[in-house]
Amino acid sequence: MIIRSAEFIISAVGPKQYPEGNQPEIALAGRSNVGKSSLINKMINRKNLARTSSTPGKTQTLNFYHINESFYFVDLPGYGFAKVPKPVQAQWSKFIEQYLSKRDCLKAVLQLVDLRHPPSKEDIHMFEWLGHFGIPRIVVTTKADKISRGHWPKHQKVIRQALQLPKNVPMVLFSSETGQGKDELWGLLAPYLVG
Ligand code: GTP
Ligand code: MG
C-alpha cells in the first residue's frame, strides 16, 4: 500500500462525531498497551501520528485516522486496564460497543493480542462478541520481536486454541519494531478497502 496521506481527524466519544461520507473503516481492538497505536503508525509509515505510550490507557476515545482520503483506521480505547476507575471503564465499553454494533461502514476489526501471553478473558470475550455480530475479524499477534523466531509457532498455537480460532479467521504475526507482518496485513485488508 502506498501511503499518500494520513491525517488525524477526530477523537470521538459518540456517533454524532463520527466522520461522514461512508468510507470504509477498520477498527483496532485489544488490551491497553498491546500495540494498537503503534501498529497504525507502522502501517502508515509515521512515527507518532497515533499517540503511543508506555503508560497503558493512553487512547481513551475513538480516534479516527483518514488514510489516502479513502478509508479510516479507528483506534479504540484499550480494555483491561485495572487502574482506570470502573465507571470510566463502563463508559468506554459503552461507546466501544455502540460503535462496533451499529457502524455500517465498519468493514473489519483487527483484534490485537500480545504474542507473548495467552489471551485474557476480555480478549476472548471481545473476539466472540465480534463474531456474534458478524464483523469480519483478523487476529494480529503483536510484539513478535520480543520472542525468538523459533518460539513463534508455540505462542501462536496457545492463542489459536484459546480463541478457538475458526479456519476462516486469519492470524498475522506482527511487530511494530521490525515491520514484520505489515505487507501481509495490507494484503488481508485490501478487500475491505474498496468502495
Ligand atoms: P492504549 O492506547 O493504552 O490502549 O495502548 P496501545 O494498544 O495503543 O499501545 P501502544 O501502541 O501505545 O504501545 C504500548 C507500548 O508497547 C509502547 O511502549 C510501544 O512502544 C510498545 N510496543 C508496541 N508495539 C510493539 C512491538 O511490536 N514491539 C515492541 N518491542 N514494542 C512495542
Ligand atoms: Mg493507543
TrEMBL record:
<dbReference type="Pfam" id="PF01926">
    <property type="entry name" value="MMR_HSR1"/>
</dbReference>
<dbReference type="GO" id="GO:0005525">
    <property type="term" value="F:GTP binding"/>
</dbReference>
<keyword id="KW-0132">Cell division</keyword>
<dbReference type="InterPro" id="IPR030393">
    <property type="entry name" value="G_ENGB_dom"/>
</dbReference>
<dbReference type="InterPro" id="IPR019987">
    <property type="entry name" value="GTP-bd_ribosome_bio_YsxC"/>
</dbReference>
<keyword id="KW-0547">Nucleotide-binding</keyword>
<comment type="function">
    <text>Necessary for normal cell division and for the maintenance of normal septation.</text>
</comment>
<keyword id="KW-0479">Metal-binding</keyword>
<protein>
    <recommendedName>
        <fullName>Probable GTP-binding protein EngB</fullName>
    </recommendedName>
</protein>
<keyword id="KW-0342">GTP-binding</keyword>
<dbReference type="InterPro" id="IPR006073">
    <property type="entry name" value="GTP-bd"/>
</dbReference>
<keyword id="KW-0460">Magnesium</keyword>
<comment type="similarity">
    <text>Belongs to the TRAFAC class TrmE-Era-EngA-EngB-Septin-like GTPase superfamily. EngB GTPase family.</text>
</comment>
<keyword id="KW-0717">Septation</keyword>
<feature type="domain" description="EngB-type G">
    <location>
        <begin position="22"/>
        <end position="195"/>
    </location>
</feature>
<dbReference type="InterPro" id="IPR027417">
    <property type="entry name" value="P-loop_NTPase"/>
</dbReference>
<keyword id="KW-0131">Cell cycle</keyword>
<dbReference type="GO" id="GO:0000917">
    <property type="term" value="P:division septum assembly"/>
</dbReference>
<dbReference type="GO" id="GO:0046872">
    <property type="term" value="F:metal ion binding"/>
</dbReference>
<dbReference type="GO" id="GO:0005829">
    <property type="term" value="C:cytosol"/>
</dbReference>
